[in-house]
Amino acid sequence: MFKQFTENINGHQVYLLSSLGIFLIFFIVVAIILFKLGKSHVEHMSELPLSDSDIHSSEKALQ
């Protein structure tokens, strides 16, 4: 199957296949990183927008 793609590549198709390869590699790397993250880190990051304690402590530090 891949031989058919590589044998019939013209000038424009090189960009198509290279962009597809870059996208797939990036997607796979991001998926691996997300699976390796610990559950506690994910929970901490998900609670950041809702947490008021960090906002108040940084306001006190600025004053």
UniProtKB/TrEMBL annotation:
Transmembrane segments: 12-35
Domain of life: Bacteria
UniProt keyword list: Membrane, Transmembrane, Transmembrane helix
Entry protein name: CcoQ/FixQ family Cbb3-type cytochrome c oxidase assembly chaperone
Source organism per UniProt: Mucilaginibacter terrenus
Lineage: Bacteria, Pseudomonadati, Bacteroidota, Sphingobacteriia, Sphingobacteriales
